[in-house]
Design brief:
Chain A: InterPro entries: 4Fe4S_Fe-S-bd, 4Fe4S_Fe_S_CS, FDH_Electron_Transfer_Unit, Formate_DH_Fe-S_su. Chain A: Pfam families: Fer4_11, Fer4_4. Chain A: This is 4Fe-4S ferredoxin. Chain A: Keywords: 4Fe-4S, Iron, Iron-sulfur, Metal-binding, Repeat. The complex is a heterodimer of chains A (about 325) and B (about 850). Chain A is an alpha+beta fold and about 325 residues long. Helices cover about 25% and strands about 15% of the residues of chain A. In chain A, the strands form 4 sheets. Chain A has a 4-stranded mixed β-sheet with strand order 8-1-10-9. Chain A has a two-stranded antiparallel ribbon with strand order 2-3. In chain A, a hairpin with a 5-residue loop joins strand 4 and strand 5. Helix content of chain B is about 25%, strand content about 10%. In chain B, the strands form 11 sheets. Chain B has a 6-stranded mixed β-sheet with strand order 21-23-22-28-20-26. In chain B, strands 9-10-11 form a 3-stranded parallel β-sheet, with no helix packed on it. Chain B has a 3-stranded antiparallel β-sheet with strand order 12-13-16, with no helix packed on it. In chain B, strand 22 and strand 23 form a beta hairpin. The chains are: A alpha+beta (about 325), B alpha/beta (about 850). At the A-B interface, helix 3, helix 4 and strand 3 of A face helix 1, helix 2, helix 8 and helix 22 of B.
Chain lengths: ~325, ~850
């Protein structure tokens, strides 16, 4: 680990200034996605908007039988993927109540109540996620007519994680993969030579080679849109704000509050995934709120940047080379005359 | 709603975020259920029993909003002595002519008077009112169900505000729903009593002075032989609970397309003119005065129908419409009967209808009994299809299923088919009217490619060319076309008509040509013109109000400056009911509009749906008519009596109160009444490809033991014309599939992702199988029922293909709306692919033989 500190957290561990470390002076705040799967309705607008904006090719008509998921997973031709998981677990697992920091309804409603002589419904609007006083007790017992007491349908939109320590980028020999000023990781299609080193390097199995041209493709976090001050296509199209785009620090704060809210609402399974800078990739630029174990969604439980051990490996390699040299030298020394 | 209206569902999520509880009632567990607090699976086709059960709960436990219903509904009104309810007559209402499959609604009237329905079947009183000679043609009889009863105005209604008179609407309602007990709901719908109780508690606890509950529905409620009565049941419930005309309340019809609301406001329906003015029937010697006399309600805003109609005629025929020629009233076509889509198909089969326009519609996939639709088209002289792609309705003559089975041969088909590519909404200007009656303008983003043109371009230039061809004609038959005001400005290299000029015409103008701002300005003397009276004001001050896009955060919560809602930019209809009879909000929390005694006018957040200076205490003089006849507490201003109707004395063909009848094809007998099916459902003339199935305990009914329902998926759009050709959408749901429970899969050896063959008396289709817990078996009538889910998007053309679920459906229609019963029918399902060619026809024949089906099966009253 000492080697990482020497490198200023370039390969492992927390890295608060990922763009700065990549050589951008005065970089804008790091941008990312917070995908709150507890409000995802599985409409797949993100998948279609992504393909439309980025001209990603259609990649085959296959009825998989995996619930409504016929996309199957992220790849060269799928940069957003909505997973559908049917479970025999209690109803009500998905809970809305997401705070819309930048959305008007609550503010407008609250404003209304403060106006004199304006006794509108907004005047007594409760804060988001809380039942207003006098609301129905609403005791809801999970019960299904055939005696099955458990059924829940999880939906979650997956995407490239834009890791703090991106192994794909670290192993790229051509410089086709680069860190943007927004802290995201992007492939330059005109530089990539199709060597494919990055493919096994990704701990999430995201980056992938396109069959017909051999080059690798993945989510750019709509680098072109970001540069023009627009949000990524998937976040723009999401009707329920399951996909939220913004400065990563803000998103992390919002996400932690959301988890607390869900825990308070009796959803103990709610947890964040990829949010912590202390995890194996130094935290994801695109992180998630999940309602079950990551494996349920097809996500690795404890991803580690595959280049974490690179310094150690080099040290070991150097040591090994040294030993071999010493051994060789020794053999000369000890050679009987 | 999340499944088919994901964009609208964001507001449900907003409501949930503010503490709202969401209940989802659906045979399947859908994407909506996944986000709901409570999912209630029920047997498809049993919703009146379910809603009737809630009505029973509300009445039994006195959970209704008493002050609201006494003031604003017809609950206190006393009915005639000769009215007979289903309780008295074994499941039917008085006035039934069983053989003629029609009701005479004379006995349904209020004691002492007779009402004209505000909308719907309004021609019912023509003879009485005009002293006519019974000239309705034989063909129109189905619409002309009413003839008895006193003419309106002969007496005041009798009221009992204590609601205790045995013949008052409230008491009739109580008796009618007494049998809709939780036990009955469990038996009929398959909803366990505990689950049902939770629904009743959630709905009633969330209604009253302080709180309101909204109902949202889509075609899962309308596509039944009793579809209109489904909505009526919800209307009764919402009225009892005081949830109409108030913020957070209402009954919201989720539409199937972006502007279905718009296409009923300015209708593509055979029996309506713009703004819900009825289309005239072919009565002898009916002039404008006689029409208005027969159709207009004498009280309420429909009393001004003459102003609306004359202004419409002025918009159609301009200077040619004068007082001397009755404003060209005689130019309007006349109805000789019902000419709904399915009756038009039958007319094609009979050789009566010879030409057909299909504009953005794919009946060869999207209509019930798709085969019959194709056979009808194969009997036409000409067919025009305007669509984005070569949909099945444009190519059935060369590659349709009947070509494969040998039932049709291309060389024998004499129909000349024209395909004209259509422009998409992004390629033209125009407006969408959504379910909230909100007109939202969209601007053209790009020119349409190639020969694609907008529908407006097509209609305008078609009319222009026809008029050129007819120019100089002296045939009086051509006058209505030649006299049309057909002068729209065009622009661009394709001479695209200016859509805003059309909007301005719809809005209307005064005698000087200035844009009108309100339908209250419309005159009966021809000095104003208006293409659709309810849209009057959308172009007020010469500004396209529908194009307003002021963000919500810059406005109050009503957001009145986002687009424009008809009528008068009012966001909630009948909002006078949000205040008590004295004009004070029922509660501060739910205040919307209120009487301001200092200013002497109605005020509030929304535009009041009431005459601005009519005080709550106003009582009209006895001889008043139209809006002047409304009192200060007649909140339901479009109704002939100003009241919300718990009971419908006039306007419905199939009864004043909703009663549960089994679907046309049902594996179950009707537990609630001896009457199995809606006795006045609309059956079309017998056709070998439209056979009905035995139901309930009849022999052969168990040949089709499973209940099936059709629906949509988020990833596709209706009959697929807009989605199956799109690779990005096709790959998300690449193939037609059916959804079945693990239990049904085990019972019928169906394999996950394998093939299943599904059969009805009409057709056979194959589908891939999705085995899922989301389709749960139910216990109905004490036995286990399996349901089969069938998304109906697919057909043989396009990038993603599959059989059309609508091949299975029959034509047995709601008698009010002529809508098919696509949401509940009975099928058999078996493993494997269907037979090909003539063998598939043979399989259906064999099933019919096994079930003992002939042309009389299922046609009993």
């Amino acid at each position: 680990m000492g080697g990482d500190e020497d490198r200023g957290g370039l390969l492992y561990g927390p890295q608060p200034d990922v763009a700065g470390a990549a050589g951008y002076p005065d970089a804008p705040p790091r941008m990312g996605f917070f995908t709150d799967t507890s409000v995802c309705i599985g409409c797949k607008a993100c998948e279609v908007a992504c393909k439309e904006w980025n001209a990603v090719p259609e990649d085959g008509l296959e009825l998989t039988g995996m619930s409504y998921d016929n996309t199957q997973g992220l790849g060269a031709d799928t940069w957003r993927h909505v997973a559908f998981i049917e479970q025999r677990k209690p109803f009500g697992g998905q809970e809305p109540g997401v705070a819309h920091d930048d959305v008007d309804v609550f503010a407008a409603a609250a404003r209304l109540g403060t106006d004199a002589g304006s006794p509108g419904p907004g005047s007594t609007a409760p804060p988001p996620g809380q039942a207003p006083a006098g609301a129905p007790a609403g005791r809801i017992s999970p019960l299904s007519p055939d005696g099955r007491t458990e059924l829940r349908w999880l939906m979650a939109s997956d995407v490239c994680k834009h890791c703090t320590h991106a192994a794909c980028l670290d192993v790229c020999p051509t410089g086709a993969l680069f860190r943007t000023e927004f802290g995201t990781v992007v492939v330059q299609e005109d530089v990539c030579n199709g060597c494919g080193y990055c493919v096994p390097a990704c701990p999430y199995g995201v980056i992938d080679q396109r069959e017909d041209d051999g080059r690798v493709w993945k989510c750019t976090l709509c680098y072109d849109r970001l540069g023009a001050g627009m949000e990524p296509a998937c976040a723009k199209s999401c009707p329920t704000e399951s996909i939220q785009f913004g400065p990563l620090e803000e998103l992390r704060e919002r996400a932690r509050a959301r988890v607390a809210q869900l825990h308070a609402a009796g959803v103990p399974d709610a947890r964040l995934y990829g949010e912590s800078p202390d995890d194996g990739v130094g935290g994801d630029g695109a992180f998630f709120l999940l309602l079950d174990e990551p494996e349920v969604y097809g996500l690795p439980p404890d991803p580690v940047v595959t280049t974490r051990d690179l310094p150690d490996m080099w040290r070991h390699a150097a040591l090994a080379a040294l030993s071999l040299a010493a051994l060789a030298a020794g053999s000369f020394v000890r050679r009987p005359r | 709603m999340a499944e088919c209206h994901p964009v609208g569902f964001q507001w449900v999520m907003e409501a949930k975020a503010r503490g709202a509880k969401v209940i989802h009632v659906d045979p399947r567990f859908t994407r909506t259920s996944a986000l709901a607090d409570l999912h209630v699976p029920l047997r498809a086709g049993s919703d009146i029993a379910f809603l009737g059960g809630i009505i029973h709960y509300v009445l039994e436990r006195e959970k209704y909003f008493r002050d609201y219903i006494v003031a604003y509904s017809n609950a206190p009104v006393i009915l005639r002595e000769d009215f007979g309810d289903t309780e008295d007559l074994g499941g039917v209402f008085s006035g039934l002519d069983a053989a003629g499959r029609r009701y005479d609604n004379g006995s349904w009237q209020y004691e002492g008077t007779e009402m004209q329905a505000a909308s719907g079947q309004r021609d019912t009183e023509y003879d009485k009112r005009t002293g006519g000679d019974g000239s309705l043609t034989e063909a129109a009889r189905g619409e002309a169900h009413g003839s008895g009863g006193a003419v309106i105005g002969e007496g005041e209604v009798e009221r009992d505000e204590t609601l205790t008179h045995p013949r008052c609407v409230f008491q009739v309602l109580k008796r009618h729903y007494a049998r809709y007990t939780p036990e009955m709901v469990e038996q009929v719908c398959g909803v366990p009593q505990d689950l049902f109780r939770q629904v009743c508690e959630l709905v009633t606890e969330n209604s009253g002075r302080e709180r309101t509950t909204a109902f949202a529905y889509a075609v899962g409620w309308t596509q039944h032989t009793v579809g209109t009565q489904y909505i009526r049941a919800a209307a009764i419930l919402q009225t009892l609970l005081g949830n109409i005309g108030r913020p957070g309340g209402g009954i919201l019809a989720l539409r199937g397309h972006a502007s279905i609301q718009g296409s009923t406001d300015i209708p593509t329906l055979f029996n309506l003119l713009p703004g819900y003015i009825p289309m005239p029937y072919a009565h002898r010697n009916e002039d404008l005065d006689a029409f208005v006399e027969a159709e207009a309600a004498h009280k309420g805003y429909w009393g001004n129908m003459r102003s609306y109609l004359v202004s419409l005629l002025k918009a159609y025929w301009g200077d040619a419409a004068t007082a001397e020629n009755d404003f060209c009233f005689d130019y309007l076509p006349r109805l000789t009967g019902s000419h709904s889509a399915y009756e038009t198909t039958m007319a094609q089969l009979e050789g009566v209808c010879k030409g057909y326009f299909l504009v953005g519609e794919n009946p060869a996939v999207g209509n019930a009994n798709a085969k019959l639709m194709r056979l009808g088209m194969a009997n036409l002289d000409w067919l025009v299809v305007r669509d984005f792609s070569l949909i099945e309705s444009a190519t059935w003559w060369k590659d349709g299923p009947e070509i494969e089975t040998g039932e049709l041969r291309t060389r024998d088909i004499r129909t000349e088919v024209f395909f004209l590519p259509a422009a998409a909404h992004t390629e033209k200007d125009g407006s969408f009217t959504n379910t909230q009656r909100l007109l939202q303008w969209h601007h053209q983003a790009v020119e349409p490619p190639g020969e694609a043109r907008s529908d407006l371009w097509f209609a305008y230039h078609l009319g222009r060319r026809i008029r050129e061809k007819l120019a100089g004609s002296t045939d009086p038959m051509d006058r209505p076309v030649l006299d049309l005001a057909w002068d729209y400005p065009t622009r661009g290299r394709h001479a695209e008509p200016d859509a805003e000029a059309v909007l301005a015409e719809i809005n209307g103008r005064d005698a000087e040509g200035r844009p009108l701002s309100s339908y209250e300005q419309l005159e009966p003397d021809g000095s104003t013109s208006c293409g659709c009276w309810i849209y009057c004001g959308v172009y007020a001050d010469g500004v396209n109000q529908a194009a307003r896009r002021r963000p919500g955060r810059e406005q109050d919560w009503v957001a009145a400056e986002w687009a424009w809602a008809w009528p008068a930019n009012r966001r909630i209809l009948y909002n006078r009911a949000s205040a008590d009879p004295e004009g004070r909000p029922w509660s501060e929390r739910k205040a919307l509009v209120w009487w301001d005694p200092d200013k002497g006018e109605w005020s509030g957040h929304d535009v009041p749906d009431f005459k601005k200076d009519k005080s709550p205490g106003h009582r009209p003089p006895e001889d008043a008519t139209g809006p002047q006849a409304l009192s200060g507490t007649d909140a339901f201003v479009m109704q002939a009596d100003g009241k919300a109707w718990l009971y419908v004395p006039s306007g419905l063909t199939d009864g004043p109160l909703p009663a549960h009848y089994e679907p046309q094809d049902s594996p179950f007998p009707n537990l609630l009444y001896d009457q199995q099916r809606n006795p006045v459902r609309q059956l079309l003339s017998p056709h070998p490809d439209n056979r009905y199935q035995p139901s309930g305990d009849e022999p052969g009914s168990q040949v089709f033991p499973y209940v099936a329902t059709t629906y949509r998926l988020t990833e596709h759009h209706t009959a697929g014309g807009m989605s199956r050709w799109q690779p990005y959408l096709a790959e998300l749901q690449p193939e037609f599939f059916c959804e079945v429970s693990p239990e049904l899969a085990a019972e019928r050896n169906l394999e996950h992702t394998g093939w299943a063959t599904i059969v009805s008396a009409r057709g056979v289709i194959e589908a891939r199988v999705l085995v899922t817990d989301r389709v749960a078996p139910l216990t109905v009538h004490g036995r286990r029922l399996h349901q089969v889910g069938l998304p109906y998007h697919w057909g043989p053309n396009g990038y993603s293909t599959g059989d059309a679920a609508n091949e299975l459906l029959h034509l047995s229609l709601d008698p009010n709306t002529h809508i098919q019963e696509a949401k509940a029918f009975a099928v058999d399902i078996r493993p494997g692919r269907r037979p090909r060619g003539p063998a598939s026809v043979e399989l259906v024949r064999a099933y019919r033989a096994r079930a003992g089906i002939d042309e009389r099966t299922g046609t009993e009253p």
